[in-house]
Specification:
four-stranded antiparallel beta sheet, about 80 residues, about 0% helix, mainly beta
Length: about 80
């Protein structure tokens, strides 16, 4: 599991614990959890215009933990 922080267009931040986050071809931000059988379940979906930035909590290059920014556009998955 990872912790993701989403900066929302209304100025709020929301935190979601999920196995993965991704940006679809339509620009939606999706968060999924995978159970111990390998089945994925989508737990949250955000419209493209509702999210201004996505961060994953993790270690920086050889350093302490922090919020790692994810790409602002294009399709991607982060685990």
């Amino acid at each position: 599991m990872a912790v993701f922080m989403l900066r929302l267009a209304d100025g709020e931040d929301t935190f979601v614990e999920a196995t993965a986050a991704g940006r679809t071809a339509a620009g939606e931000i999706v968060l999924e959890r995978t159970d111990h059988h390998g089945r994925s379940e989508r737990v949250r979906t955000f419209r493209a215009d509702a999210v201004t930035a996505v961060y994953r909590r993790g270690p920086a290059d050889g350093g302490p933990y922090g919020w790692l920014p994810q790409p602002p556009d294009g399709t991607w998955w982060c685990y």
